[in-house]
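User: quick one
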Amino acid sequence: MSANIPDQTGGPRESISRQPTFIEKHSNTVFGWATYLFAWLTVLLVLYIVCVIGIQAAPAIRDYGWGFITGTTWDVNAHQYGVLPEIWGTMYSSLLALVIGALFGVAVAIFLSEHFLSSFVFSVGKLFGVQFHPLWAKLPDNFERILKNLIELLAAIPSVVYGLWGIFFVIPLIRPVCDWLNSNLGWIPIFNTTLSGPGMLPASIVLAIMILPTVSAISLNALLAVPPKLREASYGLGATQWETILAILVPTASKGIFGAIILAFGRALGETMALAMLVGNANVISWSLFSPANTLAALLANNFPEAGPKEVGVLMFAALILLGITLFVNMVGAFILQKASEPQEGVR
Amino acid sequence: MRFRVGLLLGLFATVIAVGTAFAAENSDVNGNFVRLTGAGATFPAPLYSKWFKDYHALHHNVQVDYQSIGSGSGIKNFLNKTVDFGASDAAMTPEEIAKVDVGAQLLPMTAGSIVLSYNFKGVPELKLSREAYSGIFLGKIKKWNDPMITKANPGVKLPDSPIHVVVRADGSGTSFVFTKHLSAISPEWAKNPGFGTMPNWPVGTRSKGNEGVTASITTTPGAIGYLEYGYAKGQNLPMVELENKAGKFIKPTNESAQAALAAVELPENLIAWLPDPQGERSYPIVTYTWLLCYKQYSDPKKAEALKSVIEYGLTVGQKSSEQLGYVPLPQNVVSKVRAALNNIQAK
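Assistant: Done. Structure below.
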């Protein structure tokens, strides 16, 4: 066999072992250094971004200081800038979206991880006495896979498409409900204005749909990672499926679910285009779900193209605040995550 | 299989043949190929794109790329000299012009009117007096059956429903022109919020871009907002008849806009504002939109091409402006702009 292979070096082949080549000898070290380098480059990039924004924002920080955060008017003509309505709108819309998105996202994750579909197909088959027919043995699995992919596909839809869909579909759809709520339950602060097209509620609904894939995909993985013995033990003790899910599975997977929610919150805070189209962009602080509002990201998107040299600094200041909020949320999330997961360790 | 390979080979050969033919053609014109880049106002963008495309079809060796990124960005890029020409609805301020060391020549290329559009079933015509529409945008008039509105519309049944004001969220030349007009007709508006590409609107939801405003108006019953005439016409939106300086209610049409343009004499620098034009038949909110050119270009070919493109826009181009909802320039303006073209020279 070896005679057929032309020898590259031309010399006689004496042994299959040989000295490691230069590349082989040093590739380990180089690889190690490369990962080190790239990891630090990423960190440096973040620092660089913060630095650039900070430097550009510096004049605005000097001029406006805390007044910028507590001010409520944004008037280019009068050189008055304040982002309190935007901070409020960013937090309010993100939290609303998170409540809706987390509810649906976790529900989807439970549905897919519990294989509800197979028991449904089984019981339907049983009605006709054909529950063991091989024809639909794979049906629930396939359907679940399609469902999972469809939900993940939601993440691939461009933001601007969500915005258009919100304007032409969601707003007309919710308008009758909103008008009814406003005229009948208008004394409740969250319903006390009329919906005039773009506003907080349509923005939050669309935002919830946008963060749904993040919540459901990570929660699903967390739920699937729960050891089967826990579920079996729970059933063995006489718990129903419902009790098992809420008392055993979800708490055990809570760390992952919580992580998913924090990630989704981060995305909701920074979402720009769809919100710029749907939130109404008015500097209003209101509890009402139907009132137009504004968010930091939308403010930046709307103002940058036509911003004068002085306004750019102010916008950079707003960007810095958005960065700060995102960082703060992630840190608080990580902290709560750590605290919340401690008592759960024993369960595993 | 054999057949397929043959087909593939054939296709391949064709592609190569066509490719070389194209390459040959390109190398032919490569000697005097000129590429001009411009950026700025979104308002005249559809018209400019049409001009530049049509011009390229006639003169293969000149290609003009225009990015509609907004008047403010257009001026910024023009000042930074990252483009060959800019475009702006808000012209340029004297300070900005002073910053251009080679000199800036502003050329009005077309004009447009800004219309108020509304969403009301069964109200095909609506008239608004100056007090009424400035009051609506100031947030003082809140209901559609306000006496200010009903007074000018006898016989029209207006409901007791809230007025949903829609304004532009992004900074824009359209807002600039509209608020400049409001400042001219209402002292209260002039004091606060005043005019600008992004004024601090007292009321209303804010939508992004002309298309955003259009969407908000069409989906919200009882909405009113301002738009460029071309957009409103293209979308078949109902347009409000506005009261002009002479106290007449004027429909936004080409004739009424041209009447307004005729009422103003263009000064030497070709920057004229018509915040409140005179004349019985003038539509009240009309504006020019400008191309920003340098007075000196280092590349003579670029200067030549640019002048030729502008000449095209002034002659043949004016015919397409009406179709697209713009106001063709009056003849005396065209001759003034043509005279100003001589100020653009190669170094």
